Structures are given as C-alpha cells and as structure tokens.
Amino acid sequence: xxxxxxxxxxxxxxxxxxxxxxxxxxxxxxxxxxxxxxxxxxxxxxxxxxxxxxxxxxxxxxxxxxxxxxxxxxxxxxxxxxxxxxxxxxxxxxxxxxxxxxxxxxxxxxxxxxxxxxxxxxxxxxxxxxxxxxxxxxxxxxxxxxxxxxxxxxxxxxxxxxxxxxxxxxxxxxxxxxxxxxxxxxxx
Length: 188
What we know:
Elements: E1 2-10, E2 13-22, E3 28-32, H1 39-46, E4 54-58, E5 64-67, H2 79-87, H3 93-102, H4 118-131, E6 136-140, H5 148-161, E7 166-170, H6 174-179, E8 184-187
Parallel strand pairs: 3-7, 3-8, 5-6, 6-7
Antiparallel strand pairs: 1-2, 1-4
Helix pairs in contact: 2-3, 2-4, 4-5
C-alpha cells in the first residue's frame, strides 16, 4: 500500500496534511501522534469510509479488516456468532472456537457478548478481524482496555495468525508497538 500526499480537512481544519506512507505486505507500522492529528481519519480514508481531499492511495489490498476504536459487535450474538458474521462458512465453528480460546475466552464462547467485560469484547473484535483473513489489518487503538498480560497475549495472537497481512496500528503507547514486534513507528 502506498499513500502519497494525502490531505483531508473538516470544516476548514486540516487534519491530514500531505501524509505519505508505504507499507509492504507483511510489514507492520504504528501511527503515533497527539489526539486530533488525523490518525483515525487516515485509517478511514484507507478503508474507503472517508474521501481524501487530495493525494492518493495506491496498491491497496482487496481484503481489509478494520478494528475500530469502538467494539462494534452484535450484542445479542455470541462471540462465535460475531466472528461467523465475517467468515461465513470459510471457518468452521471448531476453528473459530480455537481462535477465541487462544485469547483466553474459553468459558464465554456461547454467551451474548453484551455480558462480556470490555477486555473480553475487545479480544472478540480482534479475533473477528484476524479470522476474516485480510491482506491488511487496520487497528485503531486495538489494545485499549487490556491489561499488560492480555495485551501481549493478544499481540502475539495477531502476529501468529496474520499470515502475510500488513498491519497499520494507531496507538498512543510505544508498548503497543513493542508488543507488535517492534513495529515501525510513524509520527505526523
């Protein structure tokens, strides 16, 4: 993926000012900047949820998974069913359960996700993105609400199951970059 001179303004306020970035297949980069500098807007432009004012994004993979800052789960569905929504029949129920168990959710697989703690919900969201089988993982503050042990367990899970997917992670925490294997840190 290649981003060249991307610009985006809201109500006359420039939030992305000629941002350029290249991310190779299998690469990992973490975006770090103060709040309001356009990190989430950049992810939204990559995902096609916002239209840049100028600049371009090229070599964008076809399959993109997005972990938003909010969990965006179907509260009445179980963790397994939330993942099945994006995988369809591509993954069997047993494989989905193994993914969730790997993240420490073995005892909570069949209850509605509305009954799970914030950290447990976050791990369901991350597993859903990983199980989708994307070529690019967009992670917007993926480890918020996780303690240090769960953060490392979840980062290890992502790295184990990413395949050749590139990872672009928005974070305020250098420990997140370290957990993702010493990812390149991009500031703007």
